[in-house]
Amino acid sequence: MKAILILAAVMLAGCGSVEQKQDILHKSFERYRKAIADGEVVARRREFFVPSMSEHLDGDLENDLFEITVGHYIHKESSHYETFAQRRGCLTLNGHKEDGTPVTLFLEYQKNETSWLISGSYVYIQLKEDFSEKALCPEEARQEIERAIEKRMRMRMHE
Fold first, then answer.
1. Is residue 99 predicted with pLDDT exceeding 70?
2. Cβ neighbours of residue 55 closer than 8 Å, sequence gap 6 or more
3. β-strands 102-111, 76-85 pairing
4. If we measure between CA atoms, which residue out of 142, 134, 138 comes closest to residue 22?
5. According to the model, what pLDDT value does residue 128 have?
6. What percent of the chain shows pLDDT beyond 90?
C-alpha cells in the first residue's frame, strides 16, 4: 500500500513539472511581445533572438523590422501549443490580426545558458479559422501547410 502511495505521489509530481514546463516558451513570447509594444524590441533583440539572428539584424534594422516584430501579427490570441526536444522548442500561436483575419504563428526556440531564444518563425495567414492544434516548428508547419494546400487543390480538380 505504501509503495502505491509513493508511486502515485511521484506520478503526480511528474505531471506537475510537465505542466510548469509547458508555458516556458509562451512566457518568453509574452516578454517579447511586450518589448514590441513598448518599442524596445530593437534595443533588446539579444534577449529574444539567437545570436545569428540578432547579429544579422545589426545590418539594416529598418529592412529587418518585419523579422524582429513578427510577434506583433497576433492581435488577439486564441490558443497556443508548445513542445520540447532537448535544447529546441516549438511554439504555435493561433489568433487573429487586428482586422480579425485568422493567423497562426509558428516559432522555433533554442535554449542558451539562461533562456529560450527565437531561432526561426513562420506566419500563416488563413482564409478561415483552421487553426493548428499542435506545436510545430516553422519548417514542419510550412511542410504540413503545403501538403494540406496540395490536397485541397487535388480535391477541387476532381470535383
1. yes
2. none
3. unpaired
4. 134
5. 77
6. 40
pLDDT, one tens digit per residue, over 17-31 is: 333 356 899 999 999
Q: How confident is the model at residue 69 (pLDDT cuts 50, 70, 90)?
A: confident
Give the position of cell 511586450: 34
Q: Measured in Å, how far apart are the chain's first and last C-alpha atoms?
A: 63
What percent of the chain lies above the pLDDT cut of 70?
77
Q: Say which residue the cell 510577434 belongs to.
A: 71
- Is the CB of residue 70 less than 8 Å from the CB of residue 93? no
Rounded Cα distance, 149 and 77, in Å:
24
- Name the percent of the chain in helix, strand, coil, to the closest 5: 45, 25, 30
Neighbours of 110 (CB within 10 A): 18
Cell 534595443 belongs to which residue? Answer: 43
Buried b (16+ CB within 10 A) or exposed e, 54-67: beebeeeeeebeee
DSSP state of 111: E
